[in-house]
C-alpha cells in the first residue's frame, strides 16, 4: 500500500514537472531548445574551411570589380594624373565604410538564423511587429523553436516604434513596397552582373574580362566581342540545372588564386611605377578631387560605386556560411587584396593616362598575361554564378511570403537545403541578359545601369536596418542615428551621381525593377484580397452543427481533403461544394498550407491538427506550416504526411480524454508530444509526428497548442487509449481504402463594374494572367491527377 502510494506520489511529481515545463515556454529547457536553432558552434578548422569556401560563393562579384572600375570612372579619359589619386582615395574609403564596416561588421549580424537579404530583414520585422499584410498568423506560431521575438517595455522607444508601424495599413504597405523595391533591384543586379562580367572578358566583367582579348587584338570588332559574350552567357545559364554544389565545387580555389594574383600584381605595379600613390590613404585628396573636377568629379562617383558592387550579394548569399567565416574571409583576403589591386592600377595609370580603357589588362606583366586572362575569365564566371544563385533564393523567399507567382523550384543538393534551381526564372534571366548585352554593346552604359541597381539596394538596406536596430537589437536611438547618418553620408552621394546617368544606361535596372515590382505587388494584392474574401465569407460553426452529423447530405465512403487559405473556420468553398452536390465524404479534413516569417519550420512541428465539431461529424482541420526556406520536395508524400498526422491526432486525443477524467493526473489539454512508443503503423511504415489538439468544440476559430511533451505515465496508458480509438482508426482506414479526393478551390477574382480603370487592368488582366501561368497547388503538393477535384467560384473586389 505504501509502495503504491509512493508510486502515485512519484507519478504526480513527474506530471507536475511536466506541467511546469509546458506552462513556462520561456523556461530553461525551452530556451535551450530554441537556441539549438540559433547557435551553431564551429571548430576553428571548420570555420577556416568555410571561410575558404565562401570566397567562391560570396565574394566573386565584389572581387572582380577591378576589371572595370577605372574605365567607368574616367570614360572620357584622364585629364590630370592627380585625379587618379583622388579616385583611388574614394575607392579606399568606400571599401572601408560600406563593405567592411557597414556590411561585414553590422548588417551581417541582422541575419534571420543565418538567412540574409531584404526578405530576411522583413521576416524579422514581421515577428517583432504586426506588419505582415496577410493576417494569417496565430499565437501558436510564436511557439515554434525557430520563432524568436522580444517583448518590450510599453514606455520604451522600441514599443513606440512598434505601435507606430502597426497603427495604419498604409505604413505596413509602405514597408512592404520598400522591401519589394530592394528585392527587385537585387534581381536587376542578378541580370546585370553576368552581362558586365561577360563583356569584360571579351570588353567589361564578361563585357570586362572579355575586353582582355581586345587588348591583344585591337582590330577585333565589337560585334565579335558581343557574340562571344552572348555565347558565355548561354553556357553559364545552361549549366544552372546542375546546381551550385556541382557547378561551384572549384570556385573557391579559382577566386583565391584570383585575389592573390591581383594582390601580387598590385604590389609589383606600386613598386615598378609609382609608390607615391599610397598618399591616397589621406582623405584630403578626396576634397581636392571634388574641388578640381566639380560636377565631373561628382558624376564620376557612378564609376567609383562599381568598386563596392557585390556587397549587397554578400548579404543575400549569407545562408551558405556562418557570419564568422564570411568576416574572416573578407578581412584577411578580400579587403587587403582589393586595396592592393586598385592601388597598383592607380600607380600604372599615373604614368599611362591614355590606357584607362583597359587599365587592368595593360597593367599585367607580359609574362603572365594569358594565364591571368584565363584566371580573370574564370573569376568573372564565378561572380555571375553568385548573383544568379542569390536571385533564385530571393525569388523563393518572395514566393513563400506571398509576393511572387508559384513557380517550379528544384532541389539541386541533398546536403544543402538552400541550393535550389528555378528553371523559369533561369531562362528569363538568360533572355534579359542577352537582350541587355546585345542592346548596349558598351561597357560604360552597362556599368551605369549596374551601379544604379546596387546603390538602391544599399539605401533600402539602410532604411530597413533602422527598425531592425530598434525592435530586434533594441539599440539606443543615438547609435541608430550614427549608423544611419554614416551610411547615407556615403550612399546618398552615390545615388545622386547615378541619377545623372539615367539616360546613359541607368534606366535599365529601373525598368527591370519596375516590371518585377508590378508583378510582385499585383500578385500580393490579389493574394490578400482572396484571403480577405475567405475570411469574410467563411461558414459559421452554428450552421455546421445545425446540419447534424450527416451535414444534411449523403456521407459516402472516402476521405476528402479540402484545401483552403483559412487557418480557422470553415471555408466558403465547402458550403459552395455541398450546395451544388448532394454528397460529401465520410471524413472531411480542411487543409491550410501557410508560410510564416521564419526561415524554416522543423518537421516535427509542421502539422497542427484539430477536430471540428463532435466526433460523429468526422471533420478535422490540418494546418501545414512552412518557412520561407522550406521546399516541397518531389519525393515528399504530402498525402501520407496528412494521414500520419491525422492518425496520431486521434490516438493522442483519446489519451487526453482518459486523463481529463482522472483526479490523479491533470495533464493540460494544450500540449502533448509523441514518444518512441506512440507511433502510427500503416502498411508496415512507422511514423511519428507532432499534432495539435483541442477538445473544446465551442469555437471553430480557436486553434490549439502544438503537441510538445509527454510524461512516462502517458506511455504506460497507450494500450488503453489504443483500445478506445481502434474503432475510429478502423473507420478511417476503410474510408481511405474507399478513396481519397483532394478538393481545391479555383477562385477567380474580378474587379467590380464601378472599379477604376487601373484596378480593372490590375485585377482582370495582370493578376488573371499571372494566375493562369503560375504553377498549380496540386502540382506543388504532388496530388495525383485522378484524385483531384477543382471547385470554381468567382468573387468581385
TrEMBL record:
<feature type="transmembrane region" description="Helical">
    <location>
        <begin position="450"/>
        <end position="470"/>
    </location>
</feature>
<feature type="domain" description="K+ potassium transporter C-terminal">
    <location>
        <begin position="557"/>
        <end position="797"/>
    </location>
</feature>
<feature type="transmembrane region" description="Helical">
    <location>
        <begin position="249"/>
        <end position="271"/>
    </location>
</feature>
<keyword id="KW-0812">Transmembrane</keyword>
<feature type="domain" description="K+ potassium transporter integral membrane">
    <location>
        <begin position="50"/>
        <end position="544"/>
    </location>
</feature>
<keyword id="KW-0406">Ion transport</keyword>
<feature type="transmembrane region" description="Helical">
    <location>
        <begin position="477"/>
        <end position="500"/>
    </location>
</feature>
<comment type="similarity">
    <text>Belongs to the HAK/KUP transporter (TC 2.A.72.3) family.</text>
</comment>
<keyword id="KW-0633">Potassium transport</keyword>
<feature type="transmembrane region" description="Helical">
    <location>
        <begin position="368"/>
        <end position="395"/>
    </location>
</feature>
<feature type="transmembrane region" description="Helical">
    <location>
        <begin position="323"/>
        <end position="348"/>
    </location>
</feature>
<feature type="transmembrane region" description="Helical">
    <location>
        <begin position="543"/>
        <end position="563"/>
    </location>
</feature>
<keyword id="KW-0813">Transport</keyword>
<dbReference type="GO" id="GO:0016020">
    <property type="term" value="C:membrane"/>
</dbReference>
<feature type="transmembrane region" description="Helical">
    <location>
        <begin position="298"/>
        <end position="316"/>
    </location>
</feature>
<dbReference type="InterPro" id="IPR053952">
    <property type="entry name" value="K_trans_C"/>
</dbReference>
<keyword id="KW-0472">Membrane</keyword>
<feature type="transmembrane region" description="Helical">
    <location>
        <begin position="506"/>
        <end position="523"/>
    </location>
</feature>
<feature type="transmembrane region" description="Helical">
    <location>
        <begin position="84"/>
        <end position="105"/>
    </location>
</feature>
<comment type="function">
    <text>Potassium transporter.</text>
</comment>
<protein>
    <recommendedName>
        <fullName>Potassium transporter</fullName>
    </recommendedName>
</protein>
<dbReference type="InterPro" id="IPR003855">
    <property type="entry name" value="K+_transporter"/>
</dbReference>
<dbReference type="GO" id="GO:0015079">
    <property type="term" value="F:potassium ion transmembrane transporter activity"/>
</dbReference>
<keyword id="KW-0630">Potassium</keyword>
<feature type="transmembrane region" description="Helical">
    <location>
        <begin position="416"/>
        <end position="438"/>
    </location>
</feature>
<dbReference type="Pfam" id="PF22776">
    <property type="entry name" value="K_trans_C"/>
</dbReference>
<keyword id="KW-1133">Transmembrane helix</keyword>
<feature type="transmembrane region" description="Helical">
    <location>
        <begin position="42"/>
        <end position="64"/>
    </location>
</feature>
<feature type="transmembrane region" description="Helical">
    <location>
        <begin position="173"/>
        <end position="196"/>
    </location>
</feature>
<dbReference type="InterPro" id="IPR053951">
    <property type="entry name" value="K_trans_N"/>
</dbReference>
<feature type="transmembrane region" description="Helical">
    <location>
        <begin position="583"/>
        <end position="601"/>
    </location>
</feature>
<feature type="region of interest" description="Disordered">
    <location>
        <begin position="1"/>
        <end position="20"/>
    </location>
</feature>
<dbReference type="Pfam" id="PF02705">
    <property type="entry name" value="K_trans"/>
</dbReference>
<feature type="transmembrane region" description="Helical">
    <location>
        <begin position="224"/>
        <end position="242"/>
    </location>
</feature>
